[in-house]
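Raw record, unedited: Alpha/beta hydrolase fold family protein
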Amino acid sequence: MSTARGRFRAAGSVAFSAMKGYSMHKAGGTAAVIAACLLLTACDEDTEADPAPGSAPASQAAFTGAKKITVAGKSVNVSCSGTLEKGKPVVILLHGGGDALDKFAGLQETLGKKNRVCSYDRLGAGGSDQPAGPQTFETTGKVLTGVIGQLAPDSPVVLAGHSLGGLIAARYAPDHQDKVKGLVLMDATSPTQEADLVREIPAGATGDAAGLRTQTLAVFKGESPEKLVVADADVKSAGDIPVEVIKHGQEYLAQLPQYGPGLERAWTEGQVKWLAISTRSKLTIAKTSGHYIYQDQPDVAVREIEDVAARVAG
């Protein structure tokens, strides 16, 4: 196991399973939960350009089930459900760091009853190939463009991303307004997460907080299976596309002794910052949810994604 993969999983694997139940009593467990949230800023993809939208045959774009597609010479694992209808958008689900498309199985099945919906594993995640080297949001975007070009060549797209997937979607949408017509951010990583972390957990911190700080900053530098280098940036405008920002209601970040309340406030502020992405943005609080909103309150995730898709369809 590589150093990067080991560091990511050491903090994340315990946390991802623990977060599902949410109830954490020991300080170490609490730190793991918080790490799972903060470390969802470690990701993505390949560096070559992709087939332009419209290059995929209609029969390929309309498939259902799971398959592998080739994007810039890399094998990318994808899954699609539902019927492709003219004039309606294709919903593209973007998973969080450390996850894969199978995490969306229940959500995708439900959404597929009314919409065409697809998900994919980013390079370094799930069943997709490993990235060739360090990734940036630009290279991540090139792979996403390739995926969209094959899965939704002639349709508008709604991007629905969780955590890191939300950050990727929010960075991508402003530069692709010709294709991305709606956006749903499910507890998306803050646009200023590194600055937030450094401010809230000082360099002199000790114990669980010190480990969390060190591990998370390493992930920001690309020390993760997906090798994405994450840099803070201002929120860019995507015009007036419908945007739904969904934030967790259970304040699990606040459980970290001493520094938790500050991290929780910073996360909330980060969700509010995302509202600047569009003149038609709305914030919803999933009151009984932890970080995995689409699992804790799937009805909320489904409702908001379907609402954005319906508004795009007109």
